[in-house]
């Protein structure tokens, strides 16, 4: 593909048009490759300046008379935002999307076809249309940019079907393609490259680590405790003190909660406004302005707030309720400290958060990853998040989170935790007797509270009839109960390579340890077919080159095992089972269930 221009051109555009003295690290590589006429896959954290990765090459091409850059973007508000900002710099940019009048669309199309535009933003729907493709061929186009490119991933959290057709654009015109995203695992990146039909793209990434942010997680079960703790947390920013500066954002999962918390904080004298998508546009604008002008220095919001908002001095982001994925969390928490000054990102987390997010129907895999982030308190928080988001190890511990600096963990808020009853403790002993081998305490606690994580399937804990039997307790209560039983001499605790394990005190030590044996069948009399389902899932996942858990989450395996569906309709009712999975292997799953039923009848 032809070069768009030189790196010197690019530096000139950066200085003269955007007023920045130099490129940021990832930007430089992306721009360099694009002006050299190469495809580029950009993975940069939000706020690092992804837009310039295509805007600068676009203007370089323009200066060399190479035509218009076409930018596909999924959000109308962001498109209009960028068009406005570029216009203010004297750049001729326009957008084609469903909020434009027919007259506006005709004017934009004419301008595009006559080569009068520097950049043209289009929605994915429009970009995928045949009419647009014809325009594309008829117009001078210098390059294609695909923003939020992870929307192409069918396994991702933002899947947009129209993105699947963007690869076809590439077939029509031979120009460099720049794809950009702030959130993609290595597998998603590969999927983007393949589906967009990119040609040996330059891959550009930069570390997601933010040196000035302290990540902190607090465990809470009780709503009242959360709001009380929030008050203390906010007071560090001194929002009630008119002379102080700095803002705080409080994220909640639901609109009702935003209203309730706003109300409550206001009653306590905090200068606070609320923001969520259920309010009308005027009310939202008013809230945003009050926050931006510091009239209200605390903003309580759902995830509807923040897209395209870039305030430098947010000193604190509290998630009073958890979002549905590490991606969402890092995006929202990352709105703190944009000015580079020390800021805090605090997540309140408890079983309630998982229930709410499950109810909101996000990806169960992403939710589990967030849960791991929140519950594992032995690995640096920032390291956990960055390695997850970058898809590779290599982030050093941050030295500023509550794991790196345990002093950041203040005394936990008062809890009304109920201790395990006698019956609960008897149940614990019964489970360990049934298992007859050492079990990781963490896994045991999770299984008894109804969690389904990968490690549990390996330990056979998912087939326990007692799965979820102690749901009403939290992890700490269960561990305390186990401690009591250890003190009483009924259980024994050991350190194993992957953490502490417990076993019955009377268990035969020799050989019992780490013996990998199948469980006796559950008391219900039915033998679990979870292992068969798991095997089928793995085989299929290999065939489709996807992660097994993305195809068939543990929850769905357990669900099928329990429900034993006989028809596709019944299969569809199994929680956690996606339509795409039913398409891919629904018949196979039914056959498996049936085969088992037959063999049991014979046996
Ligand atoms: P992203 O799309 O990655 O979230 P943006 O493109 O919106 O980020 O850029 C975030 C901010 O960084 C903007 O205010 C932009 O002006 C600024 N910025 C981008 N590149 C540079 C640069 N090379 N030097 C200084 N500031 C930059
Ligand atoms: Zn850390």
Would you write up a description of this structure?
- The protein is of the alpha/beta class and 603 residues long.
- The chain folds into 4 domains: 7-205, Rossmann fold (3-Layer(aba) Sandwich), CATH 3.40.50; 213-409, 3-Layer(aba) Sandwich (Rossmann fold); 422-510, Orthogonal Bundle (Arc Repressor Mutant, subunit A); 518-602, HRDC domain (DNA polymerase, domain 1).
- Helix content is 45%, strand content 13%.
- It has 26 helices and 16 strands.
- A 7-stranded parallel β-sheet has the order 3-4-2-5-6-1-7, sandwiched between helices. The protein has a 6-stranded parallel β-sheet with strand order 8-13-12-9-11-10, with helices on both faces.
- The radius of gyration is 27 Å and the shape is globular.
- Bound molecules: adenosine-5'-diphosphate (ADP) and zinc ion.
- Adenosine-5'-diphosphate is lined by residues 20, 23-24, 27, 44, 46-52, 310.
- Zinc ion (ZN) is lined by residues 380-382, 397-401, 403-404.
- Major sheet: 7 strands, parallel
Mean pLDDT: 86
Query: Number of DSSP helices?
Result: 26
- Supply the CATH superfamily name of the largest domain: P-loop containing nucleotide triphosphate hydrolases
Backbone shape: globular
The CATH architecture of the largest domain would be 3-Layer(aba) Sandwich
Strand tally is: 16
Radius of gyration: 27 Å
The CATH class name of the largest domain reads: Alpha Beta
Computed structural class = alpha/beta
Query: Which regions have little confidence, pLDDT < 50, spanning 5+ residues?
Result: 507-525
Number of domains: 4
Percentage of residues in DSSP E strands: 5-15%
N-end to C-end Cα span: 67 Å
Strand order of the largest sheet: 3-4-2-5-6-1-7
Q: What is the fold-level CATH name, i.e. the topology of the largest domain?
A: Rossmann fold
């Amino acid at each position: 593909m032809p070069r768009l221009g030189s790196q010197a051109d690019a530096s000139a555009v950066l200085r003269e048009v955007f007023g920045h003295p130099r490129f940021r690290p990832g930007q430089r590589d992306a721009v360099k490759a694009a002006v050299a006429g190469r495809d580029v896959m950009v993975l940069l954290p939000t706020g690092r300046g992804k837009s310039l990765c295509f805007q600068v090459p676009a203007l370089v091409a323009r200066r060399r008379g190479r035509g218009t850059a076409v930018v596909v973007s999924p959000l109308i508000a962001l498109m209009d935002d960028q068009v406005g900002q570029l216009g203010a710099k004297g750049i001729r940019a326009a957008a084609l999307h469903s909020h434009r009048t027919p007259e506006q669309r005709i004017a934009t199309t004419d301008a595009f076809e006559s080569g009068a535009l520097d950049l043209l933003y289009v929605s994915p729907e429009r970009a995928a249309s045949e009419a647009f493709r014809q325009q594309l061929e008829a117009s001078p186009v210098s390059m294609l940019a695909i923003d939020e490119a992870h929307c192409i991933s069918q396994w991702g959290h933002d899947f947009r079907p129209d993105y699947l057709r963007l690869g076809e654009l590439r077939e029509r015109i031979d120009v460099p393609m720049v794809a950009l995203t702030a959130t993609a695992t290595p597998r998603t990146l590969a999927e983007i490259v393949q589906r967009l039909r990119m040609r040996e793209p330059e891959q550009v990434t930069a570390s997601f680590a933010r040196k000035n942010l302290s990540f902190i997680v607090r465990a809470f079960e009780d709503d009242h405790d959360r709001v009380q703790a929030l008050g203390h947390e906010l007071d560090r920013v001194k929002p009630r003190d008119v002379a102080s500066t700095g803002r705080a954002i409080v994220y909640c999962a639901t609109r009702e909660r935003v209203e309730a918390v706003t109300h409550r904080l206001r009653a306590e004298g905090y200068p606070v406004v609320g923001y969520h998508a259920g309010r009308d546009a005027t009310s939202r604008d008013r809230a945003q302005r009050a926050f931006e002008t510091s009239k209200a220095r605390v903003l309580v919001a759902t995830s509807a707030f923040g897209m395209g908002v870039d305030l430098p001095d947010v000193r604190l982001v509290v998630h009073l309720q958890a979002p549905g994925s590490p991606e969402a969390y890092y995006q929202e928490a990352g709105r703190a400290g944009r000015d580079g000054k020390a800021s805090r990102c605090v997540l309140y987390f408890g079983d309630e958060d998982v229930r709410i997010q499950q109810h909101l129907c996000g990806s169960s895999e992403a939710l589990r990853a967030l849960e791991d982030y929140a519950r594992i308190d032995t690995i640096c928080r920032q390291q956990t998040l960055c390695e997850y988001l970058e898809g590779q190890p290599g982030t050093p511990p941050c030295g500023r989170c509550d794991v790196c600096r345990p002093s950041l963990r203040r005394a936990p808020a008062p809890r009304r935790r109920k201790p395990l009853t006698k019956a609960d403790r008897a149940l614990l002993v019964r489970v360990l007797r049934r298992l007859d081998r050492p079990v990781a305490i963490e896994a045991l606690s999770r299984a008894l509270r109804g969690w389904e994580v990968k490690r549990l399937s390996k330990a056979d804990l998912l087939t326990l009839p007692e799965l979820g039997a102690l749901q009403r307790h939290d992890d700490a209560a269960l561990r305390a109960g186990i401690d009591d039983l250890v003190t009483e001499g009924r259980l024994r605790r050991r350190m194993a390579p992957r953490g502490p394990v417990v076993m019955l005190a009377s268990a035969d030590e020799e050989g019992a340890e780490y013996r990998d044996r199948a469980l006796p069948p559950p008391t219900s009399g039915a033998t679990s077919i979870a292992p068969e389902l798991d095997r089928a899932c793995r085989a299929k996942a290999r065939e489709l080159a996807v992660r097994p858990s993305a195809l068939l989450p543990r929850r769905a395996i357990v669900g099928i095992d329990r429900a034993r569906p006989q028809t596709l309709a019944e299969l569809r009712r199994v929680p956690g089972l996606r339509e795409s999975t039913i398409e891919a292997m629904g018949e196979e799953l039914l056959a498996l269930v049936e085969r088992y039923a037959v063999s049991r009848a014979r046996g």
